[in-house]
Structures are given as C-alpha cells and as structure tokens.
Amino acid sequence: MNFNLSEEQAMIKDSIARFVADNYNFEKRRKNVAMEQGFNPAYWQTFAELGWLSIPFPESLGGFGGGAVDTMVIMEELGKGLVAEPYIATVLLFGGLLAQSGEGELQQKLISQIIDGSLQGGFAYLERQSRFELSDIKTSASAQGDHYCLNGEKTVVFNGPVADQLIVSVRTSGEQCDEKGISLFLIDPAAEGVSLTDYRLMDGQRVANISLVNVLVSKEHLIGELDQGYSLIEAVVSKTMLAISAEALGIMQKLTSTTVEYSKTREQFGTAIGRFQVLQHRMVDMFIATEQVRSLLYRAVCSADANNDDAEKDLRALKVLVGRSGKLIGGEAIQIHGGMGMTDELDVGHYVKRLMMINTTFGDADYNQQKFSALANS
C-alpha cells in the first residue's frame, strides 16, 4: 500500500510546519493561550488566508474537498506545535455538523463565514450525567408554534466562551439514552435564556457550561432532520476522533524528539544521561509506542476513507492505543527530564496535559476498550 502523500497534501504539511516553526515557539504559545479568547485571533485569520479552514469542507460548499488523510496531515502538524487555535471546535465539530446536514442556505452562509475566519462555533453535546455516551441527553426541546423551546444544561463546550454560534443536541422524543429522538439546533449564545460559565481546562483551552432556560429557537434552525440527529453526531465525532488521534501523534513525536535531545545535553556523573543504557531502552520504548500509534492511525484513516466494515473497530482500537501510549510517552518524557519536567516553564508538561485531555475526549482508553470488545464479539 502506498502511504506517500499527494503533492497537495505535502504542500499543506510543509506550510503548517513552517508556520509552527516561525510563529509558534513555546513562549509565543503561552502568550496566545493567555489571551482573552484563549488563542490568537490574528493567527486564525492567517489560517483562513492560507486556506486551511476550507480543507475539510466539500467543494460544493466552497471548500477544498479534503478527506480523512488531509485532516490527519493538518492535525499532526498542529499537534507538534501544541497549537491552541480552535480548529477542532469550529471547523471539525461545528462546521462538520453543518456540512453533514445538507447544503441549504443556512449551511452555505455559515460555512462560508467559517472559511473566511469571521465565525467561531462550538458544539454543545456533553451533560453532567452523560460521561462519554453521546446519546445520554436530558436537555429537551418542545414545539411551540414556529419555534422550539429548549431547557437544560450542557457542560465542557469547547470554544464555548467565544463562539458566535452553537449547535446544541437536545431530546425531542424518546427516553434519556435513546439514540432516536435526538435533534440538533443552532442557537445564538447571546439569546435570551442562555447563560454561560466559562473556565479553562488543564491544557489551557477555554470551555463553557451552558444553561438553557426557555430558549426559543426557530424551526428553521434545526440542523438535519428532526429526531435523527444521533447519526449525524456519530459521523462527525468519528471523523474528529481520527483528527485528535493525529494531533496526539504529533505530540508524541515532539515529546520523543525533545527527550532524546535533552538526554544528549544533560550530564550526570560526568557523562550525558543519553549514554546510560537503561534510559536508551526507555527512549526506544517511546519511539516504538509512537510508531505503533502512527501505524494504527494510518489503518483507521484508510478504513474511514474506504468506509469498510472494520472502520469503527479500527477507530476504537486507535483511541485505546492513543490513551495508553500517551500515558507511557508522557510519563517517560517527564521522568527523563527529571524535576524540570514538572515545571510550568518547560513545554514538556504542557504537551503531556494535552495528551491527557485527548485521552478523555470522546471516551478514554478504558471506555473505548469496552466498545471495541463489544464490536469484536458481535
């Protein structure tokens, strides 16, 4: 099988790598994360000007028409730089739901604004009781004439504090955990009855808990079909799981290379610690774990593009490996760096924190192991 990138994909990879090298050293990253938005708006406009925001969208909606491989290339390079700009929240989740739901006037308008960098979005899907189950939804929507009345609470909404528009998953029929009966609505965070509580996660990204009290939403703002939102969520989340796994691969590569370079310069007992065989073995373990993630990522991406029967099983296996390898690589990187690895002033700890957040996004390793086992035994 040919794993070489196409000419266009190689150009995308090189352009992002250059941007990260020129504009995203660790000190600049710290300043970007400390901004009110949690990222640098000027860099987001650069993403738009370079066409990166258009890549996942179909050509019929003004995009580049990229697939899973293109997204993988983007996210791997962004991971190496620990880039804070909300590509996942705005482009892959919010934009992905719009693109998957059809090509109506509303979708055309909003996606064009995402592509030109003028619109920030978010997807509110988690609730306090739901843990990792996408179908566990208590937030309700009841029909009232030409509108729906929304009531409930959503938690840990990525990019929620700065989103101009949000897509919210609600229950329009059925029981709490039923897959059927889930609908998606587009809401304005500034609308009457919507209140936000924003905070930062351990990796620095800003998120929000959102309360909805008698929020009226026009029926025209229904995204997709009534009661059929779960299949839309599942498709977009699967693509995003591949993307964050690619981001994790970029982080793992960065941690491994950084640790190897540090071992060549840090001296103990009059010699570089990289000469100690026991540490060499541990760094080899880091390298092997990284390459295992790369191999399974390629398999999962190929399965997704081919839409074959093993696509979901490969995806679940990948998420398990990302969680377990991330723990191994992060732990070894911190230990080999010694006390410095625990400090906020060194980038190693920040990369490890992001790996920990990736592990818990859309289900941790244990949760996805259970899903994989169920698929394998079915």
Could you please describe the fold and organization of this structure?
- The structure is a single chain.
- The chain has 378 residues and is an alpha+beta fold.
- It folds into 3 domains: 7-120, Acyl-CoA dehydrogenase/oxidase, N-terminal domain (Butyryl-Coa Dehydrogenase, subunit A, domain 1); 122-228, Butyryl-CoA Dehydrogenase, subunit A, domain 2 (Beta Barrel), CATH 2.40.110; 231-377, Up-down Bundle (Butyryl-CoA Dehydrogenase, subunit A, domain 3).
- Helix content is 52%, strand content 16%.
- The protein is built from 11 helices and 10 strands.
- It has helices spanning 7-23, 26-34, 41-49, 68-81, 87-100, 105-115, 229-265, 277-306, 311-337, 347-360, 365-377; strands at 121-124, 140-144, 147-158, 165-171, 182-187, 194-200, 206-218, 222-223, 267-268, 271-272.
- Strands 1-4-5-8 form a 4-stranded mixed beta sheet, with helices on one face.
- A hairpin with a 2-residue loop joins strand 2 (140-144) and strand 3 (147-158).
- Helix 7 (229-265) packs antiparallel against helix 8 (277-306).
- It is globular.
- The chain starts with 6 loop residues before the first helix and ends with a helix.
- Its cofactor is FAD.
- It comes from Pseudomonas pohangensis.
- Residues 228-363 form the Acyl-CoA dehydrogenase/oxidase C-terminal domain.
